[in-house]
Amino acid sequence: MITPEELGAAPKVLLHDHLDGGLRPETVVELGREIGHGLPRSDAAELGAWFVESADSGSLERYLETFDHTVAVMQTAEAIKRVASECVQDLAADGVVYAEIRYAPEQHLHRGLTLEQVVDAVREGFEHGMAVAERPIVVRQLLTAMRHMARSMEIAELAVTYRDAGVVGFDIAGAEAGFPPTRHLDAFEYLQRENAHFTIHAGEAFGLPSIWQAIQWCGADRLGHGVRIIDDITQDGDKVELGRLAAYVRDRRIPLEMCPSSNLQTGAAASISEHPIGLLTKLRFRVTVNTDNRLMSGTSMSRELALLAEAFGYDLADLRWFAINAMKSAFLPFDERLAIINNTIKPWYDSH
Ligand SMILES: O=c1[nH]cnc2c1ncn2[C@@H]1O[C@H](CO)[C@@H](O)[C@H]1O
Ligand SMILES: [Zn+2]
Asked: What is the ipTM of this complex?
């Protein structure tokens, strides 16, 4: 049994977390008041509960509607800096030692900011957060393009421009059904030519064709969620068979950015104990554990790991495996990844 203290103290690595899905409820209330944005609840605790209840919709499309309020209050450099700094501080307090935080710059232009000003504001917020956090943490940005929009090439170029200024990769997000990854093929081909890294939300609200396109057409380094890879695995008693795509994903060690609580809310999985992460972990896929949207799921890295430990009996050795899997899969340069594994992750787990 892992104690709550151990869970909090254990070094954790987070690869899939949305900046606009992780605000503190109090911050949404305060920023909303400052700009006169009407919110469904004015009390912070009630608003926090409202986000979780509303996101508990059983559909990705309705889950995503809750972001209207967080995106609305993140339209000035000051507001974005505050949210970014608080994000880093909250993660550090939860024992996260490395995080890649994503958001869509194109969604923060309503009050006159340019794409560059948005990325700069997030960078300043992250730097501030890393400087004041109660525990050491390294945080980098992933720039997301919205899959139903047509700005992915521009956002991919932005990611390359900022590659030495805190941005380590690119992503596409938003409603999956009807918006296949190949819709943004030019952006992915451009990134490959630039030796840049990217992950793709795939296999969350749509199945194998989405995963297949993300990997075999677009060349994704990692899969956001990827839970539906389970559709290519058949189980007959103790006998487990992998289809060609599932075998490819496992053979190539393609990291799966799994987000258990988020999947329950969008209907991608029925319960934690039935979540495909159990089988995929047993089969030694490159599984990583993530939060997706801490506000909408009312969660944290510690909580996600606690839920898994309870459902599957995981111990500290499993947590170590998840942390090292994630660190190996990070878009940070190899020597920096290795330093975090050898100087931070392993020493803690070796002594516990
Ligand atoms: O689980 C998810 N699947 C797909 N899109 C998502 C998910 N969570 C958040 N976003 C979308 O990504 C945007 C940028 O951060 C958010 O505004 C939200 O629309
Ligand atoms: Zn996501």
From this structure: 0.99
